[in-house]
Each structure stands twice: as C-alpha cells, then as structure tokens.
Design brief:
The complex is a heterodimer. In chain A, the strands form three sheets. Chain A has an eight-stranded parallel sheet. A three-stranded mixed sheet of chain A has the order 1-2-3. Residues about 1-55 and about 65-100 of chain A have low confidence and may be disordered. Chain A has two domains: about 5-105, no CATH class; about 125-430, Dihydropteroate synthase-like (TIM Barrel, Alpha-Beta Barrel), CATH 3.20.20. Chain A is α/β, with parallel strands linked by helices. Chain A has helices at about 5-15, 45-50, 55-60, 70-85, 180, 190-200, 225-235, 250-260, 280-290, 300-315, 335-350, 370-375, 390-405, 415-430; strands spanning about 5, 25-30, 35, 125-130, 145, 165-170, 205-210, 240-245, 270-275, 290-295, 320-325, 360, 410-415. Chain B is an alpha/beta fold. Chain B folds into three domains: about 5-60, 3-methyladenine DNA Glycosylase II, Chain A, domain 3, CATH 1.10.15; about 70-330, Dihydropteroate synthase-like (TIM Barrel); about 340-465, Rossmann fold (3-Layer(aba) Sandwich), CATH 3.40.50.11600. Chain B is about 40% helix and about 15% strand. Chain B has helices at about 5-10, 25-35, 45, 50-60, 110-120, 145-160, 170-180, 195-205, 215-230, 245-265, 285-305, 315-330, 360-375, 390-395, 400-410, 415-420, 435-440, 455-465, and strands at about 70, 80, 100-105, 125, 130, 135-140, 165, 185-190, 210, 235-240, 275, 310, 340-345, 355-360, 380-385, 425, 445-450. In chain B, the strands form four sheets. In chain B, strands 10-9-8-7-6-3-12-11 form an eight-stranded parallel sheet. In chain B, strands 13-15-14-16-17 form a five-stranded mixed sheet, sandwiched between helices. Classes of the chains: A alpha/beta, B alpha/beta. The structure holds cobalamin and iron/sulfur cluster. Chain A: It holds the Pfam family CdhD.
C-alpha cells in the first residue's frame, strides 16, 4: 500500500510519527520520489531532496538508516526471514572413502588465551572542548576526547570517549566537489545558517569555522571583521567550535588571536599552531582566553614532538589544552603515510612518550582532493567504469576517516552528510555503544541475492 | 620469525661470501633474509646437498609467524597469510588481503557468466599497475549438490581466478570439489557439526579449508588443533563476521585476539584469517546502503588482520575503495615508490609535441603518464629526481627546482632546441613558482599547466601549440 505526502509535511511528520508506519511512502513535490521499495525511512531526507538526481539522493539519504533510528527494526525484520534460517544440515550418509590415517573421532579441545597488552602503560590526555554556562561559556554541551589506554576499540582497556565529528563551515562561498556542494548551496553565503544546518540536519557534534576570506590572496578580510562570523556562529549553534584560519602563515596568528578574543570562555579549538608560523602568539591567545590549540604538523612524527614540546615548555600551554593534527592524506594519495604516522604516534603515546600522549584530529575533508572522489569518470581509458561520483566521493571520505579512526584518531573534520553519518555509525558500533538485534550469521552462505 | 639478529642467521649460511645472492657478503644477505627482501633460494650454495641441514634449519627459523596458504594455480593464484608483525611500520605486511567476490548457484546462467566476467575484468589503474579482484567465491544457496557442481563447472569455464567453494553441507561441498579440485580451491567451511566430513574432503584432495566458528574462539582453536593433528596444515580461520551492533565489536576483538596470539607464538592459531563483510547484506537490502556498509566492514578488516574476504557488492565505488585500501595497507612502508629519473616518451612524440615536467614519485609519475597516454597526448615526460616526492611537497622541500629540471634533461641528453621546434616547457600547476627560475636557467618558454594532470587534455586544447613569439 502506498501513501502520498508532500515534502513540506514530511519533516513535521517525522517528529511525532511512528516511523514504521511510513513504510511504503511516496513523496510528492518538485521531485516525486517513491521510497516504497526501500523499506526504511530517513529523517534527513529533506536535505536530500535538493540533490540533482533524485534517485541518487534517495539512495544516499537512505544510508542514514544506519544511524540506528527505529526504522532499523522494521528493516531488520524483513531480512531476518532470510537471515534467520537455520543451517540446513541434514545428517549425511557417511561417505565411503578411505579416511586419512589420522582421522579423529573426537575434536581435540583447546582454549585460546590472549593477554592484554603489557606495554601500554600510559593514558592519552583527555581534552574537553566547549564550555557550558557553569564554566563560563554558552555551549549546551561539551565534547571530551582522548583518555585512551589502548588502541581504539581494543578489549585491552575500555575506551572512555567516543569519536566525534566536527563539520566544516566557511566564511565565504568556496569551490568544492559537486557531491558536497549540493548540500550547502542554500547556506553558502551565511555561515550561521550553514552551522545550523550541519548541526540540526547532519548531526554534527561540533562545527569548524574556517576564516578563509582572511587570506590576503583571497579577500584579505580583517581579523576584526572575520571574528564577527565567529560571533554569528556562536549565536547560531550551541555546540563546541573549532576556529580555523586561512592557512596563511603571516595572517593566521592575528586572525586567530582576534577570534580567540571574541570567543572568550567558550573553549574553542584554535586551528592551528604549526612550526611555520608564530605559534607562540596562537598559544598565548589560547591561554589568555581559555581555549585549546590544535598542534598541526605535516606527516612527520619528530616534527610533531618538537611542536608539542614547544607548546608545552616554551609557551606553557597546559596538557589538557593540546590536540594534535598529524595531517591526513586521502585514500590513494598518501593514506599509507598518514595511517602509519598516526598509528606510530598513538603507540608511542601509550608506551609513555609524554610528547605524544595527546588526542588527535584529522582533516578528513582532504579526501575530496583525491580525483577518485570528485572526477566524473576515470581519465584512464583502460579503467573499468567508475560509476557515479555521487557515491564514490562519500565513500572516499568514509574510508579515509575510518582508517585513521583505527590508527587512533579521535576527532574528524568532515564535509559530506552521508560520510558523517556512516563514519559515526561504524565508529560508535566499534566503540560498543550501538545496540542492534543480533543477526544470525550461522548460515550466511545460503543468503539469496538479487542480481545487481 | 624466530630470529631477530643477522648473526643468528649468518651462523647457518655457507660463509663463502661469493656474492651469488646479489650482495657482497653472507652477513649482508643475512640482513636481507631478516627483513624478507631476500629469499633462501637466492643463495645457490645453500641449496647444495651438503648444506641440507642448514637450509632446513633456516627455513624453520625464518618461517613467518602466520602460516602462508596458497589458493588457486598458475599466474593468478594467491598466497595469503605470512605476516610477522602487528603493525606495518615494524616491517611491512605481506600478501595483500585477497578479495573474493561472490556468485551463487541459484543465479541463472547468463547472469552468472556476466557476473564472473565483470569480476574478472574489473580493474583500476594505480601507480603503474591495475588493482583488481583476486578471487571468486561460489556459494551454494540452493543446497543442491548437482546445482552447485554445475555452477562450479560454469564458473571454471569462464575464469582462471582462484575459487572459494562455499557450503556447510559436506555433500554439496564434495560435489563442487569433484569438479574443481585441480584448481586448488579454498573450502568453506568446516564447523563444529560437519568437521569430520569436511576434513575427509580436504585431506583426500589436499586442499586448504576454512574453519568457521562464529564467536567461539575456543572452538575455533579446537578445530584448528584437530585439523592440524589430522594432517591439515592449510587452514584459514573465520571467527564469524557479525555485521552490526555490539557483536561487531566482538568480531573485531576476536580477529584481533587470533592475530595477537598467532604473532605472539601460539602456533595452533597462527593461520590466515577470513572476514565476511558480505554479512552486511543480512541486514541491509538496499544496494547502496548494503554496499556502503559492506565497504566499511571490508575496510575495518583490511586494516585489522583479515587475510581473505568474501564480498558481494560489485558496485564500482565499493570495489575501488576496497582495492585501494588493500594496496594502501600492504605497500611496503620502507621504500618510497619511485621511477627512474629521465625523459620518457608517451605515445610517439614529434618535435611539435610538448615537454612536460613532473616528479619521479611513482604516484605522481604514473598518474600524469596515464592522463597523457589515455588521452593520446603524444609528449615527452620528464621525471625529475625529487627523491620520490610528489610535486607540491617537492617544491616545498626543495627537491623540485630549476637546476633539478636542467639536470634531468642533461641526464637524458635532451636538448630542447634539437628535440623540439618550440623550445617550451610545461610545468605542473603546483610548481608555478619555479617559472622564472626555469626560464632563466634553461632559456626556454615556460607554460604553467593545470594543477591536476587530469585537467591537462582540456588545458592543452586551449594552450597548445604555444603561440609563436
Ligand atoms: C603525502 C605528502 C607528503 C609525503 C610525501 C610522500 C611523497 N613520496 O611525495 C611526506 C610525508 C614525505 C611529505 C613531506 C612534506 N610535505 Co607533504 N604532503 C603530502 C600530501 C598529504 C599529499 C601529496 C601527494 O602525494 N599528492 C598526490 C600526488 C600524485 O600529487 P602531485 O605530485 O602533486 O601530482 C599531481 C599534480 O601536481 C599534477 N601534476 C603532476 N605533474 C604534473 C605536470 C603537469 C605538466 C601538470 C599540468 C600537472 C601535473 O597532477 C598530479 C595528479 O593529480 C600533501 C597534502 C595533500 N593532501 O595534498 C602534503 C603537502 C604537499 N606537503 C606539504 C609540505 C609543506 C611538506 C613538507 C615540507 C613538510 C615539512 N615541514 O616537513 C615535507 C617536505 C618533504 C620533502 N620535500 O622532502 C604541503 C605543501 C605546501 C605548499 N604548497 O608549499 C602540503 C600541500 C600539505 C599542506 N597543506 O601544507 N608530504
Ligand atoms: S650466495 Fe650464499 S654463500 Fe654466497 S655470499 Fe650470498 S649468502 Fe653467502
């Protein structure tokens, strides 16, 4: 049975409705989308309706079912009929073949003993971002990262804090991959609205405000003017913020200093201190106005140690105010370096290198630089068809981020709503906080598939 | 590996310092054996009869902690397992995770053949070679021996890829094995309820077999110990891949425990591990959702110790990401991937063709080369010796400079005036700031190309040939 609703009614309905009742809904509006066959429903569908190709959008939006909304149950039950089958293991006539001389009549019983790792003696520093009114800020909630005593999700020691995602907001319209852009076209000129959108619709835990317009080569916006955007965003949303400059090493220190001042008491993360700029000035701003510093180096463990040491010893930044960004390179574009760099940093921290016991942040958005994520089709004639880029891009961002999550990364700076949802779902599942009905895998071999 | 100093290895080498192995001394060769860049049979003196004991001793000492298992025959056979470390930077991971995509015996013939061909032919260019799927898993969803045997036969007619034969019913499995045993397939699977029958098949045909014990590591180890006792050394362990919820965390830790125990020296469990991201399809029906989740599971278990995987989605976005990640995790972190510096010809260049500058970092070079050749842009491509660093980092780090460019042209005896009619050089967009230096040093016209070489064809349409001054 199919029911028709208007898009405008849809978001409202979601608040109150038993979502299972929406199965088989067909939406009418500018675009008519039949989600009847999809068996689930997506609370973020509204955003998807802006996508260029309705069909692609619904598919992508559909992925947010992964987020664990109650629809999952309805969905699971549909597939359980297949998954729930017991193995059809009829007793077989014993084969008339010569047994190997050593055939056993009974299984030798063994036990697997695995010790927790002994060499992880240290705890990664916990860092809290954002401040509520009781701490002199205006955030509704805070985000705490770090605190690990083992590699992420390992049984050796419980992981105290989950992974978090901060989504990018820019202070001016910028060029971005098409698959990303379609999600932001309506808010591109308005950082406050943009921030609201990523928090309210895309489930961002935090917002990163990039003050790119301050770059002398772009608009050369003054630090004072740029910091108005910070105020707007602080007004618009009540999650903790990351504040980034333009990447210009001359300008960034003064831009971040001013931003730190207007955000006084909110405990933002200032991005970034690095070796090629006046990190001391940024460190000072963080100390004076109660913020944390992102310590950014480029894929080099010794440079990371050096910068952290300078921040601690030379600038007196407290340990609980340092987060590291050891640089993210995309899948296929140096992820092998980035992964191992982070894994080595985390292992060194756990084993007691006090210059590396800090939580880590990844500019996962870098994945959109890989041509596989944004190019329409392969430039190589001999390649197999790459399929639609609308699907490729988000998966590139997810796999880049997820790999680094496994290397120990705590906080993710991301862009595409689908990527954010899937990354959150898998990291929280591995973290152990996602409850789902147990799936019977005992006879997965017989699963019936449709031909794709 | 049971040794970690070259001295311990050196003891058992012939000590001739004859150099046949490719390095000057036995001690140097010992180091190569330790970091696994050399192989025992590179030392021919060691293969002689009188050194038989030493060879055996070394084979034993140098065997990787995790056993290697070979599946399939001929060029396309795959080896899985063989790791010695838990973290790639400690050495490197060996034998890239083998990706098997599934077909099943209730698929009608046309679709079956089409799917097999698609899997076999899928390829994605990367750093000078193509990434492609490794194996095909054939599932019996009918549970009918005849159907399974027919399907196995049909698949074999259409591909040389190694096979995994999947059924929990020993009668069905045997029917498939009778058709395919000469191809050295991997069997899936022996369980707590069918292990004797499956052991019979595996031992009779001397095939590798997967042991499946969902979420029970003691049983898994019991199976492994028993199979080993019966003479089966070629084992693969599947602790079950639970696709969602808390059980996924358990699966993750099960796999971790198996590998940690194996690397730690527990021989009874030191076998390659199988993960089955295909179980994503037990919870998600929609193709995109299931494919995304399957790719996510595949990523987790590519990084964390899966040696072979069974997958369903053949969507390009899923396969591309999976293939790339396998390559990422299994490249050797010890060596930068480079091409030899020099001037290469792409297609058949003439004096009117452009001279294009790039770096000798393999990823950069092959990306640019493929962009040129697949768009039939005949050209000279100069790979500057940047110590294997890409364009942007090399400009920042000073390995890509005007004098380095001059150097490579001289090395290749490439005279701009003799080889070209235009005396023009095209620099990468990301090396724009070298323009003035290069103009001065080479006395040539310098054009700044696109930032990404994928945009070169369009750029060429607008900017080539260069206007005469
Ligand atoms: C991986 C990486 C590294 C690796 C390099 C590994 C290697 N073998 O190259 C390591 C860790 C060693 C490294 C070190 C450094 N890096 Co680094 N690194 C990166 C990273 C993450 C990816 C670079 C990459 O591999 N790209 C892929 C390759 C294929 O791209 P490519 O070579 O540029 O080729 C493309 C184009 O240039 C173009 N192209 C190539 N040739 C041609 C020719 C023509 C004619 C045309 C038209 C086009 C064209 O097409 C190609 C395909 O798209 C980037 C950041 C990023 N995400 O981009 C930073 C980055 C390049 N690194 C940077 C820096 C500063 C450094 C260091 C100086 C850091 C430091 N302080 O130590 C060092 C320098 C090291 C050295 N030179 O010795 C900066 C450069 C900033 C700048 N613009 O000056 C970047 C951009 C990071 C950043 N945002 O700060 N880095
Ligand atoms: S070939 Fe063998 S004997 Fe000769 S130098 Fe090499 S290791 Fe020594």
């Amino acid at each position: 049975m199919t029911k028709k609703v208007k898009i405008s009614e849809l978001t409202n309905m979601l608040q109150d409705l038993d979502i299972e009742a929406l199965e088989g809904v067909e939406i009418e509006g500018d675009i008519e989308i039949d989600i009847g066959g999809l068996g689930g429903f997506d609370p973020n569908l509204a955003h998807a309706l802006g996508h260029e190709t309705a069909q692609l959008s619904v598919h992508l939006a559909n992925i947010s079912r992964l987020l664990g909304y109650p629809v999952e149950q309805a969905f699971a039950s549909a597939s359980m009929s297949m998954a729930g089958q017991q193995p059809q293991m009829q007793p077989q006539d014993k084969q008339q073949i010569p047994f190997g001389s050593g055939r056993l009549s009974e299984l030798l019983s063994a036990k697997l003993e695995v010790e927790p790792a002994q060499e992880w003696t240290h705890t990664i520093q916990e860092v809290t971002l954002g401040a509520t009114s009781s701490d002199g800020g205006s955030r509704k909630s805070t985000v705490t990262i770090g605190g690990e005593k083992a590699l992420p999700y390992y049984f050796d020691a419980p992981m105290p804090n989950r992974n978090y995602v901060t989504m990018d907001v820019f202070d001016m319209p910028i060029g971005m991959a098409k698959a990303v852009k379609v999600n932001y076209e309506d808010v591109m000129g308005d950082p406050g609205e943009w921030a609201k959108k990523v928090v309210n619709e895309f489930n961002a835990d935090m917002v990163t405000v990039h003050l790119v317009s301050t770059d002398p080569m772009i608009k050369d916006t003054s630090p004072r003017e740029a910091s108005k955007v910070v105020e707007d965003v602080l007004q618009a949303v009540d999650v903790p913020l990351v504040i980034g400059g333009s990447g210009n090493p001359q300008k960034d220190p003064e831009v971040l200093e001013k931003a730190a001042e207007v955000a006084e008491g909110e405990r933002v993360l200032l991005a970034s201190a690095s070796l090629n700029l006046d990190y001391e000035r940024i460190a000072k701003a963080a100390i004076n106005y109660g913020h944390a510093v992102l310590s950014w180096t480029q894929l080099e463990i010794n440079a990371q140690k050096e910068l952290n040491r300078k921040l601690m010893k030379q600038c007196n930044v407290p340990r609980e105010s340092i987060v590291m960004d050891p640089t993210t390179a995309a899948l296929g574009y140096g992820l092998d370096y980035a992964y191992t760099n982070m894994e080595r940093i985390r292992l060194a921290g756990l084993m007691g290198d006090e210059e590396l016991t800090f939580p880590m942040s990844s500019g996962t958005t870098n994945a959109w630089g890989a041509r596989e994520s944004w190019m329409k089709s392969s430039p190589m004639k001999d390649d197999s068809d790459w399929g639609p880029r609308e699907y490729r891009g988000p998966i590139w961002e997810i796999v880049t981020g997820l790999s680094l999550a496994l290397a120990g990364n705590d906080l993710f700076m991301m862009m595409h709503p689908t990527s954010v949802q899937v990354l959150k779902e898998i990291t929280q599942t591995l973290y152990g906080s996602v409850d789902k009905e147990t799936v019977d895998i005992s006879n997965w071999v017989e699963i019936e598939m449709e031909v794709q | 590996m049971k040794v970690n100093s070259p001295l311990e290895v050196y003891k058992y080498l012939p000590g001739d310092n004859c150099g046949v192995c490719g390095v000057d001394t036995c001690m140097a060769f010992a180091s190569k054996l330790l970091d696994r860049s050399g192989q025992l049979n590179d030392c021919t003196p060691l293969l002689e009869d009188e050194n038989k004991d030493k060879l055996e001793k070394l084979e034993h000492l140098l065997a990787p902690e995790i056993r290697e298992v070979e599946i399939g025959i001929g060029d396309k056979s795959v080896v899985i397992g063989g790791d010695d470390v838990l973290y790639r930077h400690k050495l490197t991971f060996f034998n890239k995770t083998a990706l098997a995509y599934d077909v099943w015996d209730t698929l009608d013939e046309d679709n079956l053949v089409e799917r097999v061909k698609y899997i076999e032919d899928f390829k994605k260019f990367y750093v000078g070679e193509f990434l492609s799927p490794d194996m095909i898993a054939i599932r019996s969803s009918s549970n009918d021996p005849k159907k399974f045997a027919d399907t196995v036969e049909k698949v074999m007619e259409n591909t040389e890829l190694p096979l995994i034969l999947c059924s929990f019913d020993p009668v069905v499995l045997r029917a498939g094995v009778e058709k395919a045993h000469k191809r050295n397939p991997l069997l899936y699977a022996a369980t707590m309820s069918n292990w004797q029958e499956v052991a019979d098949i595996a031992l009779e045909y001397d095939l590798a077999v997967t042991l499946f014990s969902p979420n029970d590591l003691d049983n898994l180890k019991s199976l492994a110990t028993s199979f080993n006792k019966m003479g089966g050394e070629k084992l693969v362990l599947d602790p079950g891949t639970y696709p969602t919820g808390k059980e996924l965390n358990t699966t993750f830790n099960n796999i971790l425990k198996i590998r940690r125990a194996g690397i730690g020296g527990d021989k009874d469990i030191a076998y390659p591990i199988m993960a089955v991201p295909l179980t994503s399809w037990l919870v998600h029906k929609d193709t995109v959702t299931a494919s995304y989740w399957e790719t996510v599971l595949a990523s987790v278990f590519t990084i964390k110790y899966g040696d072979v995987m069974i997958l369903h989605s053949t969507e390009p976005y899923a396969m591309m990401a999976e293939l790339h990640l396998g390559d990422t995790i299994y490249t050797d972190p010890r060596k930068p991937v480079t091409v030899d510096p020099g001037v290469y010809e792409v297609g058949s260049p003439t004096p009117e063709s452009p001279l294009i500058i790039t770096t000798n970092f393999a990823l950069t070079y092959y990306t640019v080369e493929s962009d040129l050749s697949s768009n039939s842009i005949n050209s000279y491509l100069a790979a500057v010796d940047t110590d294997g660093i890409g364009v942007e980092a090399a400009v920042a780090g000073g390995q890509l400079t005007a004098s380095k460019i001059k150097e490579v042209l001289e090395l290749a005896d490439f005279s701009l005036n003799e080889k070209t009619s235009h005396n023009t050089i095209i620099l990468p967009g990301l090396a724009a700031r070298l323009q003035g230096d290069v103009e001065d040093m080479l006395d040539a016209n310098v054009l700044i190309g696109s930032a990404d070489s994928g945009r070169l064809p369009g750029w060429m349409d607008k900017n080539w040939p260069p206007e005469k001054e």
